[in-house]
Amino acid sequence: MSDVNEQSVLPGSATDPAPVRHFKSFRKRIPAPIWRFRPTLPPVTVVQTIKTQIIPKIVLALRKAPAPTSPAETTEQTIPNTVERFAALTLGSNEDAPFAYVEDLLAQGITVESIFLDLLAPSARYLGQLWESDATDFVNLTLAVGRQQRIMRRLGERFCNEAPQGGGGESVLLTIIPGEQHSFGLSMVAEFFRRAGWNLCTGPFSSHQELTSLVHNHWFDIIGFSVSSDRRLDELKQDIHDIRHDSRNRQVGIMLGGPMVIAQPDLVASMGADMMSADATTAPQQARGLIEQMKNRT
């Protein structure tokens, strides 16, 4: 993921010792989380990329993102009528106002999970609707989504502390198709995996080779792709094929999520993946179930 608050260098140039015969003997855990750094682009390139690539994909993803299936019990009493107000704050000139608003909700006893599912996610979808109706421009939309992403990262530690992790330290790589841009929804899914005790590595990757090199040199139990459009499905299918062939973990499980897969569940089979996940709250549990399934495959 490429949010500005998620910048530390992934040691992609490092290589592991020569492979040995038993998988468990060379399994190497990935530090959690590993955030990725992207070099700064020239200003003109940044503006053009945002206008022609990032914003249309954000809007598509937010428009199609499903509503949470199991909101927190306190939501109906405390969160209603706040989405539009919060979205307005993220679009405003006061950089601190959105987080102050969230802090006030937390002080009222609202959980971070509810903030994620019942405030950040729907307000992001609402921002996408504003863009589609020309009620805001691409600069303000980008700033607003960026503020929401920073709030999500700032709440990450508290989110992890809301529930016992109880995980076994499994490793997951969450990314989008190389060449595509960052996904807000994938950031939220990553937070649920991190809270569940997973060792977490995230994309995006600049090339197919960068992705396959990483899975060749490091052990991952699960690799998850978020698919927001049908523009790179051929590349996704090739990515999955090569991961199967080159992965250090020969029993790696591959999950798909995102608006495109939710709209077309048959993509899981046609892309060569193992499972789809439509809900961030249950994705870690589904992934652990997939690990067990993969162990039983020959």
Summary tags:
single chain, 298 residues, alpha/beta, 5-stranded parallel beta sheet, 13 helices, 5 strands
Structure description:
The chain is of the alpha/beta class. It is 50% helix and 7% strand. It contains 13 helices and five strands. It has helices at 43-64, 75-78, 83-91, 97-107, 112-132, 138-154, 156-161, 184-195, 208-217, 233-246, 259-263, 267-271, 283-295; strands at residues 171-176, 199-202, 222-226, 253-257, 275-276. Strands 2-1-3-4-5 form a five-stranded parallel β-sheet. It is globular, with a radius of gyration of 19 Å.
Sheet with the most strands, sense and barrel status: 5 strands, parallel
The share of residues in helices is 40-55%
Structural class label: alpha/beta
Give the helices and strands as they follow along the chain. HHHHHHHEHEHEHEHHEH
Which runs of at least 5 residues are low in confidence (pLDDT < 50)? Answer: 1-55, 57-78
Count of DSSP-assigned helices: 13
